[in-house]
Each structure stands twice: as C-alpha cells, then as structure tokens.
Specification:
Blueprint lengths: L1 H21 L3 E2 L2 E2 L3 H8 L8 E3 L17 E7 L26 E2 L9 E2 L5 E2 L1 H18 L4 E5 L25 E8 L2 E4 L7 H6 L5 E3 L6 H4 L7 E4 L2 H9 L4 H7 L9 E5 L2 E9 L4 E7 L4 E5 L4 E7 L2
Parallel strand pairs: 6-8
Antiparallel strand pairs: 1-2, 3-4, 4-15, 5-7, 8-9, 9-10, 9-12, 11-12, 13-14, 14-17, 16-17
The structure holds zinc ion.
Zinc ion binds next to strand 9.
Length: about 300
C-alpha cells in the first residue's frame, strides 16, 4: 500500500516535471511561438507560406516599429476570425467553442492556493497556468485560500439564481472563462466584492483576467453585472481595458483606431508592446508579424484580427 502511494507520487511528480518542459512558453501573455519560423520554412495550413520582409528601412514608425523587428507576412484563414483570446461572444456574435484538444484538465494545473468544484473542468493551458498565478497572488496577499473555481463551462456559479452567468449567448466554451465562488466551511457562497475577495477585482488584470460583465456596462455587454465571471484575455489586453475603463465590446471598437502603420503602444509587466487591428479581407487576410515569433493573433469573431507584438 505504502509502495503504491509512493509510486503514484513518483508518477505524478515526473509527469509535472515533464509538463514543465513541454509547456508552450509564454511571455507576458504573448505566445512565444517559435514555430512560426519553422512554419515559414515548411509551410503550414494555418499561416501559409511566409515571405520575409527586410528588417531595415522602416520609415515612419521609429525604433520601436514592428518592421524593425524583422517581419514576415502571414496569411490568416477566415476560420481564425473565431479563434483567440479576444473572440467576442454576445447577443450579436455567435457562440464558438474551443476544441477539447486545445484545452487541459484543470485538476492537472491546480495548486494548493485554491480548490476546484469538480475534476472535469477544462481550460486552455495559458488560462489554467495564469489562474494558478492569480490564486497564488491572492493567497500570498490576503493569507487566505478560500476561493473555489466553481465552473469553467456551464456558467452556473454558487447561489447564482438571482444572477446566473449569461447562458444563451454563452462564452463559457472558450476555455478562458472561470466562475469563482467562496468556500465557507462546508458551504460555497457567491463571490462578490466584499471581504478579502476584493483583491481579485483590484488585481486580476495583472494576471491577464478581466471581469467580463462589469458593473455599469450593462448597456454595452447586454448582460447584468456578474461579479464572479472572469475571462482570461492576457496581460496586455487586460491592462489596456482596465486602464481605459473599457469592457470587451468597447475595447474591440477602440482598437479599430490602430493599424500596422499606427499601432497602439503600451507597457505591461515591464515590457513594450504594439497592438493593432486589421480588417478581415475574406478567405485570406495577410498581416505582418515578427520573424522572432513573439506575437499573438486573435480574431474578434466578427470583422477583424487583433495583432499583439512584444517589442522588448
Ligand atoms: Zn461564468
């Protein structure tokens, strides 16, 4: 019996170590997707054949320009419009689901700083890792580990009869949403802004999460204020939304003002980023991205792509 217990600990430990080395590295919420370079050489169904653009001679934008990084053309298929961290789902935008193979089981990523309501919840790997960091931050700052991830898919949080998560135009199958509740003894109570949980409201953007349905934005989101429903969008976009007091709907409109020639520059977590949007051009949309692969592309589930580039 003892040996079996030891064996299972050993298997678990080696599995964790293995996962540590195989995890897709991320920097500040932007995918460090070195694969892109290989995609250029070998071709790829997602991005097509790349065409390198010389890194010199970048007029107009200055030292921090996107092209000065050395860029390459990527062809985005129409299907990409409904994929990524900024996909908008509401009454006017259709529900999309992340593929199961693009998610992980949260139990494999849970740390000791929070608990989960059941063992079948799934999230994208980036969301699961960031959630662990958020919960560590909460526990470290408040001395409490009383938060429960109640749901990631069905949109039903504890005692939520008066305010269930929006269900009919649900974004809960994106693999980037979590419903948080509070453990009180053997009971689970609804999460709100009272008590130590307030820390989550004040700090979740530093970990890449937003309150998806904020108070006072009902006319924009089309949904009631929902304090326990967080969505992961990455640190750059979470910070920009927070600093400008924009909900996701407003943020996507705001980004229409920024193009590759005139990107939005911002700082997050001590690094510089450029963000711009590009109108979808139909079956295939060409965008310029750095050869170093340090970028992320998301569709808005409607009409444009948002390109986020880490400059330094
Ligand atoms: Zn929810």
């Amino acid at each position: 019996m003892c040996f079996l217990a030891f064996l299972s600990v050993l298997i678990f430990a080696s599995d964790s170590i293995c996962r540590e080395f195989t995890r897709t590295p991320t920097v500040d919420g932007v995918k460090v997707d070195g694969e892109f370079v290989r995609k250029n050489n070998g071709g790829n169904a997602d991005f097509g054949q790349g065409k390198n653009i010389p890194s010199s001679g970048s007029p107009g934008i200055g030292e921090n320009s996107i092209r000065s990084l050395g860029s390459s053309e990527a062809a985005l298929p129409l299907s990409k419009l409904s994929q990524g961290s900024l996909v908008l789902i509401d009454k006017n935008h259709k529900t999309v689901s992340v593929r199961k193979e693009d998610t992980v089981n949260l139990i494999d990523y849970t740390n000791s700083f929070y608990t989960i309501n059941d063992y079948s919840m799934r999230l994208t790997e980036e969301t699961a890792v960031s959630l662990g960091e958020l919960m560590f931050g909460y526990s470290n700052s408040t001395g409490s580990n009383n938060l429960v991830v109640y749901d990631t898919a069905n949109g039903i949080a504890a005692n939520s009869a008066s305010c269930p998560c929006p269900r009919y135009f649900s974004e809960n199958n994106l693999g980037t949403c979590v419903d948080i509740a509070v453990k009180q003894g053997d009971d689970i109570a609804a999460f709100n802004t009272a008590g130590a949980e307030r820390w989550i409201f004040d700090n979740c953007t530093n970990y890449g999460f937003i309150l998806r349905y904020p108070d006072g934005k009902e006319d924009k989101t089309g949904e009631k204020y929902c304090p326990w429903h967080l969505r992961y969008v990455g640190k750059v976009h979470a910070k920009l939304m927070y600093d400008n007091n924009l909900c996701l709907e407003e943020y996507l409109v705001y980004l229409k003002n920024y193009s590759e020639e005139n990107p939005l520059f911002c700082q997050a977590d001590g690094s510089n980023y450029a963000v711009y949007s590009k109108e979808c051009e139909g079956q295939e949309t060409c965008v310029n991205v750095p050869i170093n692969g340090n970028y992320d592309i998301s569709g808005d589930n409607s009409e444009k792509f948002i390109i986020t580039i880490k400059l330094n």
